[in-house]
Amino acid sequence: MPLKTNAHPRGIRLAVTLLSGLLPILLGFVILYMQAERVLRLSSQQTAEEATRQFELMLDNTAQAARELLPLAGQSCIDVNLALREQVTRRPFVRSTNLLWDDTLYCSSLFGDYHEKMASGDYANGQLLLIKGNPVTPDTAFLVYRLSDGKRGAMSTLDGYHLSNILRLIGRQTLLLLQVGPHWLSADGSFHEGDPPEFPVAQNTLASSRYPFSVTAGFPEGEVWRYMSSEYPPLFSLLLFFGVIAGFIGHVIQKRSSSPTLEMQRALDAAEFVPYFQPVVHALSKKCTGVEVLMRWNHPKEGLVSADLFIPFAEHSGLIVPMTRSIMQQTARLLARKSASFDEPFHVGINITANHCQDLALVEDCRQFLAAFAPGSIHLVLELTERKLIEPSAITHQLFEQLHELGVMIAIDDFGTGHSSLGYLRQFNVDFLKIDQSFVAMIGIDTLSSHILESIIELAAKLDLAMVAEGVETQEQSDYLTAHNVNYLQGYLFGRPIPAADFINALSDD
Ligand code: C2E
Ligand code: CA
Ligand code: CA
């Protein structure tokens, strides 16, 4: 069936609506997530750079102290002690200074004369060493800068307190750590040995180009979500808004594309509605005196669709008017070539609905139809069903008057099934009554229906109207109707509806 009010099951339509709403939300969400990741990566990189810069600045001071003291190495501790202390006082961040000779620390700003072996192998690049603490401050890590020249050596130390301060202050939102060789310092100032932890989000390790240390920055697990939920709520609202709009549009588009009207409009544009002809024969001679034009839908997927399945939709949508116009034009184009060969006016029955009678456009359609034929070669008969009576109005009055002037004939279709009154028949200047096939089907079967049929025939005779019996399928029906003076017969007994072109070809063969 080509037309269903719901082209897709409800579930699928709902799913498509949801999907069209969710897709932009999801897409927007992914973009925001990526954006948040980018922001965090950038922030982590900047933090690492800033911390590195600060550490380098501190080390510059520390290194300067060691550089100035190095030439003094080898002199007796009493002689240089003051110079050692002066560096501690003068230079910011420097916590202590020491002199070495032949890898032995022999003089310290803290303890004066001293003696401790200090292998340079523990130092990163022989230069830097992070130490857990010393006997004076066992819980505060510090960084040792060592400078050597032959047997001479100078060491200055940098307090871990300053280092962890930097880690804490610069990396307020970021996790930061300072690594020197196998040791590292976390923001809480504690000393660690071994591999530092991996930061789950946006980890960035930056090695100083000037000193052998590196800084690692990053964020804890779930930071992307935390960042998004604190920074993006207005964008989320916007996304939700777009999602609802997109869902709504998806819903409307589906509704439109699944609407029978749209599908029929498409079919009309694609010229899928085609005329079929069914012969109407003279009852006595059984000679074909005309045709009833029946519409078929040549659907590309469904094949040939019979009129009952789509005419109600076409009537409802108003498309029946252009559809009938198309059928009339096709009929005229096909049949006009034959019109010169008709010795008597050939009857062409076209089905018209009540909708079609609401304006005067039908008059013009009929005028054009008739103009295609040799004058007097055909009789155009409009078939109006009795099932749906036409509301009489000034327009319908005018319409039927003008149709009559054009010589268009009127048949009441499906006669006997509705309630047309005598007045109704007179008003439209009816020429034919088409007896409904349900009465014809009862011939020889149901005596009551036969009685009704007889009264219909009697009524038509009294009104002086010609009669056509529809749905004649058996010889018995044909004989009965002929015996009861029904003028014309139509039904499978004489011919089924066939494509107009085939019908015309068959005419030529006769
Ligand atoms: P209708 O005007 O009463 O047309 C006669 C219907 O009876 C046709 O069905 C025809 O195929 C069928 N028929 C003809 N002879 C026999 C027979 O011996 N036995 C049986 N059982 N049926 C027979 P169809 O073509 O399916 O059309 C159905 C209805 O659709 C038509 O009833 C008419 O009301 C409407 N229709 C068809 N074409 C058009 C059209 O172009 N415009 C409008 N407005 N309505 C149309
Ligand atoms: Ca009809
Ligand atoms: Ca009928």
Structure, described:
- With 510 residues, this protein is α+β, with helices and mostly antiparallel strands.
- The protein folds into 2 domains: 1-243, no CATH class; 249-509, TIM Barrel.
- The chain contains 15 helices and 21 strands.
- The protein has an 8-stranded mixed β-barrel with strand order 12-13-15-16-17-18-19-20, surrounded by 4 helices. Strands 3-2-1-6-5-4 form a 6-stranded antiparallel sheet.
- The longest helix has 60 residues, at 10-69.
- The chain is rod-shaped, with a radius of gyration of 51 Å.
- It starts with 9 loop residues before the first helix and ends with a helix.
- The relative contact order is 0.08.
- The structure holds ligand C2E and calcium ion (CA) (2 copies).
- The site of ligand C2E has 24 residues, from strand 13, helix 7, helix 8, strand 16 and strand 17.
